[in-house]
Task: structure prediction
Amino acid sequence: MTTSSATLPITSINASTKNDPPWRQMPMTRRGIFAAVAYMACAVLLLMFNKAALSTYNFPCANIITLLQMVCSTFVLYTLRSWNIITFGTDSRTDLSLKGFVPFKIVLQTSPLSFTYLLYMVVGMASIRGVNVPMYTTLRRTTVFFTLIVEYIIAGHKHSVPVLGSVGLILLGAFIAGARDFSFDLQGYSIVILSNVTTAVYLATIARLGKTTGLSSFGLMWCNGLICGPALMLWAFASGDFDKAMHFPFLYSADFQVVVLFSCILAFCLNYTIFLNTTVNSPLTQTMCGNIKDIGTVLFGWLWFGGLPFDWLNVVGQFLGFLGSGLYAYGKLNGKL
Result:
């Protein structure tokens, strides 16, 4: 449970609950609703700022933005923990060791999460560049299908017929919406599908480690930064991204710097809400929230970036996707799934 010294919502997962019945049998709590809504708001805003940096300004180094986001998150976590605003753990293994920071042994236990996070972030950033925003969100809805598969493989979770039906509606809507995308790019589409797979694995890993390590959402984020930060920095040096970034023509532009700054701030908020939503609710609920927030993403994408002409087939596909997500949300809120 949340410690008395913490003033921010912290996810507590008791390791003894790992064999409990699936969480989908329980109605969504107030904390779960907060986590879901906060995630959706952060995700829409972050996508817009990332898209602006990579497409509007044509910044060539997605890995550098990912690294900056990670450094920013680690610094914020260190500051908040030093001021005792948050805790990284839920028991003596993490709260009392190393003055409240996470022991190295537990950091190593989270290495699978860090590996999947790197794939999730790097592939996810690359997927934004090659596809227009409306089609990007349409393709991303198929993540729910991969999440079902990964949940079954990793945790053995089986879902009810209503859940499978809502997933079917989402997939059908995605195929219909993309049927007449005249800007079709096989490479861009392939990267987005790969991003869906890495997202599903990442979310399932969060749920699993949240139950077995005794770490809160902030603790898992902290371990992520400790492992992924140095690895991503080495990769940026080896790939020449640092040199490209230093010679970027808009590097010292105030407008570009503001876009990157907001991207870093929103990335911290998004990562926290992803951990919170996934552990408080479930990986599948997290994925469904990603589909529901696409209403805002599609609207802002059409208004700000364009790239997809109005087409009734696309509208029908979008509607089916939102309908499937809405049916799942209704069932989850009422404890019927």
Q: What stands out?
A: The radius of gyration is 20 Å. Residues 63 and 122 are 6 Å apart (CA to CA). DSSP finds 15 helices and no strands in the chain.
